[in-house]
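Example 3.2
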Amino acid sequence: MFKEIMGLPLHPLAVHAAVVLIPLLALGAAGYAMLPRFRPQLGWVVWVLAVVTPLMAIVARESGESLQEVVTEKHYPSSVLHKVAQHADYADTLQLLSLGLGITTILLLLQVRSKRGARMPRWAPAALVVVVVGLSGLNLVYSYLAGDSGAKLVWTGVL
């Protein structure tokens, strides 16, 4: 299911979407969290990114697993398989981080839209801001790690 779309390999297409959307979500969510005066302008964009980005991260990772199976079946050298596995590990972590960021961003959006955090403890809004900002930073780091390791596999002629 995640190998091809209309005859084209899915992984490069999905990866490019994730490479753009994950940093946009990270920066948008952190901006929304830390800059309350820009919330009216950022709100709808961050909503869309918080929903779409984790879905694209899932598609990118799943299509990557399909590609990893092909590489394994073609009996690439163990050094290449090790690099592919390291890239996959970064992608697995990134998928979870983007999902976590999407969920906590939606919670922050809901909290801001509600009447002063109705039915939430006083510490919850501040905790959401800290978690969103922290997850944003981790998403940026793992986006770089996964992207760089994948690009090196392709652009150095390994794959």
